[in-house]
Amino acid sequence: MRDDNCIFCKIANGDIPTNSIYEDDDFRVILDASPATKGHSLIIPKEHYKDMYEIDEKVAAKAMSLAKKLTVHMTDKLGCDGFNILQNNREVAGQTVFHFHMHLIPRYNDGKSILTWGHEEFSDDEMKAICENLRQ
Ligand code: AMP
Ligand code: ZN
């Protein structure tokens, strides 16, 4: 399914020209228009899935497999020193475009920090309760 009002549907399916670095039957990979670092790219499925909650499991698996290949390829081409793979779901988590995408962010030994978060404290009992709640 595609959504006529979704910019990433249009980009992924070639209706809007963009800086595309890869395409196959399921995905297009483009340069992010506001890159965090040189080469910052987005893996975008051609079908519309809002986020990780909605994406088909098989498409999600293919996206991760593609991320693996591009991490190696882009590191080779860019000469970067490391890589972040990032994927935001829902507004509270920083998602701004509501069509599933994965960020491929090359990292360089330049001291630049792009991801930071604080740390919450939980008691041993709280950690145990969280663990019991989540264990499957
Ligand atoms: P997120 O915050 O995870 O939803 O990420 C959305 C990303 O899409 C941001 O990094 C934007 O810079 C990028 N972006 C939004 N519109 C475009 C566009 N038309 N072409 C390329 N990148 C875009
Ligand atoms: Zn879409």
Summarize the structure in short.
With 136 residues, this protein is an alpha+beta fold. The protein has 3 helices and 5 strands. It binds adenosine monophosphate and zinc ion (ZN).
Provide the gyration radius in Å.
17 Å
Largest sheet: 5 strands, antiparallel
Q: Using DSSP, what is the number of strands?
A: 5
Topology as a string of helices (H) and strands (E): HEEEHEEH
List the ligand species. Answer: adenosine monophosphate, zinc ion
Q: Give the overall average pLDDT.
A: 97
Task: Estimate what percentage of residues fall within beta strands.
Answer: 15-25%
Instruction: State the strand order across the main sheet.
Output: 1-2-3-5-4
Fraction in helix: 25-40%
Identify the overall geometry. Answer: globular
The SS-based structural class is: alpha+beta
Contiguous runs where pLDDT drops below 50 for at least 5 residues: none
Query: How many angstroms does the end-to-end distance come to?
Result: 32 Å
What is the number of helices?
A: 3
